[in-house]
Specification:
There is one protein chain. The chain is 37% helix and 16% strand. The protein has 504 residues and is an alpha/beta fold. The strands form 5 sheets. The protein has a 5-stranded parallel β-sheet with strand order 11-12-15-10-16. Strand 1 and strand 2 form a beta hairpin. Helix 2 crosses helix 3 and helix 19 packs parallel to helix 21.
Length: 504
């Protein structure tokens, strides 16, 4: 008595096929699961036994049950194989075993036979579709996630008995009509640009950052508005494209953080500075995405930047440059996407008042030097916009002058992003910040005045090659916001204002 069913193992944001082979022979009662499994799968033996019994089916006593999760060299973990293993044991006792070649099963079993949600369903459904599997049975709690993929039959089930009746063609499960929401989630009014008094220069920097996907660093005394500025950044970002929605949703599915179907808003992640290195960049025995991947296509806000672990800060080099993070472990090496806008803030010194015209700094030169060296030059070089956020005086705090709303700024950002989408339509580039040297040479050509200004800036400010190219990207974004085809000296001049650093 032998049965083979299809399942899958999540590998980062992709999947590998897993064949659940069940063989039952006469012998001493036993249940063995092989195939490079972890503890959670070995514990499934007791769950399966109780689920089969409490669902009204016979558990094969005086039989030796062997379950193989193939391929044997692929590590498997988690409870998502419960349903396939239990179904295999029941179906192997049938005289006429149904055709199971075009169906994939996944789900965790409770002791009463009911199905519980599992994580990583979206990548598995995509895998099934890409490999010609037309039918997939999932726990009902995973329905909204699985139904995001079109042109595949999704069968939500409540318990093991419903699945077996469906497979034996006794009582079919109802398929679910697939849907895919493409309407962006409305932006809430908890934070809005109009709520920020003054700080026009910083607001302009955020507009440039949102339009071109550039990283931004705020520096200023406590209470000057750095955190509020960063929290308003998501409100001026353009809506996610269909491709971006699917990318972000897959990451949250793998991380087990998806609860309401397709993600329509850009992520905003703001981890505390005590976060561990693994939680920030991703990893673990079997690598999982970290905060930088959860911020993919959105914003990663690191408040009190120098207080983060030095190792974690330096690990940002690769994602800031490449838009991805490679996590290497003994068992597996995985690559997670991490194309985010970094918004970081810091005080000029531990007490916060270095250079403040109104309050005296209490930090010694040694303390100040140690604090500023927590952020290395290579990291600062990868941040496009360096913005001083000064203290506001009483007149600006109490002024009734109305500021632009996030919606007004967002409209200009969307126009600039549309220009970039048109520009890069034949490539994988989405925003100006992602341009390589070839794209910069093609789309950032300068007139004579612009070249002279840029040469002077490079010589006097001792800019690195990376800073030079990032300046050109910023200037290209500023030109796009002005709906201008060519980059001129005015765009270079404004870009230079955003690159002036007083820190470090």
């Amino acid at each position: 008595m032998f049965v083979k069913l299809a399942c899958a193992a999540p590998l980062g944001l992709s999947c590998a096929g897993v064949e659940v082979e069940v063989d039952i022979n006469k012998g001493q009662t036993s249940l063995n699961i092989v195939g490079l499994t972890d503890t959670s799968i070995q514990e499934a033996k007791d769950r399966i036994h109780s689920a089969i019994k409490n669902s009204g089916y016979n558990y094969p006593f005086n039989f030796r049950i062997l379950i193989n999760l193939a391929p044997a060299n692929l590590h498997k973990e988690g409870p998502l194989y419960d349903l396939a293993m239990a179904s295999g044991i029941i179906l192997a006792q049938e005289k006429n075993i149904p055709d199971l070649s075009n169906i994939l099963l996944l789900g965790e079993l409770a002791l009463d036979g009911s199905l519980r949600r599992v994580q990583g369903v979206l990548p598995i459904v995509l895998y099934a579709k890409e490999n010609g599997i037309e039918n997939i049975i999932v726990p009902k709690e995973n329905l909204s996630e699985a139904a995001l993929i079109k042109d595949i039959n999704i069968f939500p089930a409540n318990n093991l008995a419903e699945v077996i009746n469906h497979l034996l063609k006794k009582n079919f499960l109802k398929t679910f009509s697939q849907f895919s929401s493409t309407t962006p989630a409305p932006i809430g009014d908890l934070f809005d640009m109009s709520q920020i008094k003054g700080q026009e220069f910083a607001k302009r920097a955020l507009e440039v950052a949102a339009a071109g996907g550039h990283n931004v660093l705020f520096s200023g005394p406590p209470g000057s508005g750095k955190t509020l500025l960063a929290k308003t950044l998501p409100t001026i970002l353009p809506p996610l494209t269909d491709v971006e929605r699917l990318e972000v949703t897959k990451i949250y599915s793998i991380a087990g953080l998806l609860s309401h179907g397709l993600i329509n808003h850009r992520p905003f992640r703001s981890p505390h500075h005590t976060i561990s290195h693994v939680a920030l960049v991703g990893g673990g025995k079997l690598p999982r995405p970290g905060e930088i991947s959860l911020a993919h296509r959105g914003v990663l806000f690191l408040d009190e930047f120098p207080e983060f672990n030095r190792e974690s800060i330096e690990a940002l080099r690769q994602p800031l440059e490449d838009g991805s993070i490679t996590v290497a472990r003994a068992q597996r090496t995985l690559k997670f996407p991490a194309r985010f806008i970094l918004a970081a803030s810091l005080n000029p010194c531990p007490c916060g008042y270095a250079g403040d015209p109104q309050k005296t700094c209490a930090c010694s030169a040694a303390i100040l030097n140690k604090y500023q060296k927590k952020i290395s030059g290579p990291i600062l070089d990868r941040i496009d916009l360096h913005i001083e956020v000064p203290r506001l005086n009483f007149e600006k705090l109490t002024a009734d002058q109305k500021s632009e709303t996030s919606a007004q700024i967002r409209r200009r950002v969307i126009v600039a992003r549309d220009i970039q989408q048109n520009r890069f339509k034949n490539s994988n580039i989405i925003s100006n910040a992602e341009m390589g040297n070839n794209e910069i040479k093609k789309f950032c050509q300068l007139d004579q005045a612009g070249l002279i200004l840029l040469r002077t800036a490079v010589e006097k400010m001792h800019l690195s090659a990376r800073s030079y190219y990032r300046l050109l990207k910023i200037a290209r974004t500023i030109a796009d916001l002005g709906n201008q085809e060519n980059v001129d000296s005015g765009h270079i001049a404004e870009a230079l204002q955003f690159r002036t650093k007083s820190y470090n």
